[in-house]
Amino acid sequence: MKKVTFDLSEKVALVIGGTTGIGYAIAMEYARWGANVIAVSRRAQKCKEVADEIRRQGVKTLEFPIDAQHKEQLILLREKLLSEFGHIDILVNAAGVNRRHNAEEFPMEEYDEIMNTNCRCLFLSTQIIGQQMIQQGYGKIINIASMGSYLGLNQVVPYCGSKGAVLQMTKGFAVEWAKYNIQVNAIAPGYFKTDLTSGLHQNPEKEQAILNRNPMKRWGDVNELTGAAIFLATDASSFVTGISIAVDGGMLAMGV
Predict the structure, then answer these.
(1) pLDDT on residue 2
(2) Where are the domains of the chain?
(3) Dihedral angle, C-alpha 152, 218, 232, 28, nearest 10 °
(4) Which residues are catalytic?
(5) What is the pLDDT of residues 144-188, one digit of tens each?
(6) Closest by Cα among 213, 204, 221 to 254
(7) What letter would DSSP give residue 18?
(8) Residues in CB range of 166: below 8 A, 6 or more apart
């Protein structure tokens, strides 16, 4: 009988968008559970700061600033990881951006920014790192979806579209790559206090509207997401693929 374990010792985890917010919380939790974690983003200083924190957990890491919209940068990152560690076990796609405008006035340059960050980055990262996972016959891929994957939200139509795409790409990759022993899943966060949601939790009217939709009547703490990320990264979820776990305080379950 296969032993169920949540151990991440000696696993190699790459977290795209891992220097802030939800990605950062997941990266640090993986390090605490023994994984060698590489948290990347476009900002070199943040990559250095987070790498120093990861090393203090007693595990290995690399500093590698990257713009995941560019395929050649992802290939360089993959080859660097393989040179250093020999394998890549876990990929977390946590890079994300949002902009707020009324739909009839939404600037197309901001639409493109949202789609490139939330969709193009995820597809390219999964494609490039997935090529290695296919060769090694093993991999765990975790995408960060959203309540906007399921619900229509005000003033963020492109964001909802991008996060709906995240959910569908998660299913598509999961089905296509199941034969390679790669599990692809998503986590759909509810409302957490991060830089991405600062415009909401700093607005009393919008904050109250959010709390009214949540049976727990509070915001989530990013550390409350990490349990789902641990589960989906370990062999405990070896027969789980193509699904999204909502960590939302009951928001999706709540009616009127």
Answers:
(1) 63
(2) 12-247
(3) 120
(4) 159
(5) 999 999 999 989 999 999 999 999 999 999 999 999 999 999 999
(6) 213
(7) T
(8) 93, 118, 119, 122, 143, 144, 145, 146, 149, 186
The 3 state secondary structure assigned to 174-214 is HHHHHHHCEEEEEEEECCECCHHHHHHHCCHHHHHHHHHCC
CA neighbor of 78 nearest in space, from 70, 50, 55, 51: 70
Average pLDDT, stretch 29-52?
97
DSSP 79-132: HHHHHHHS---EEEE---------GGG--HHHHHHHHIIIIIHHHHHHHHHHHH
Arithmetic mean of pLDDT, 227-256: 94
Question: What CATH code is assigned to 12-247?
Answer: 3.40.50.720
Q: How many CB atoms lie within 10 A of CB 167?
A: 20
**In 3-state terms, what secondary structure has residue 157?**
helix
| Residues in CB range of 211: below 8 A, 6 or more apart | 217, 218, 219
Cα angle 179-238-20, degrees, rounded to a multiple of 5: 105
With beta carbons less than 8 A apart as the criterion, state whether 225 and 145 touch: no
pLDDT at residue number 76: 98
Fill in the DSSP letter of residue 252.
T
**pTM, to two decimals:** 0.94
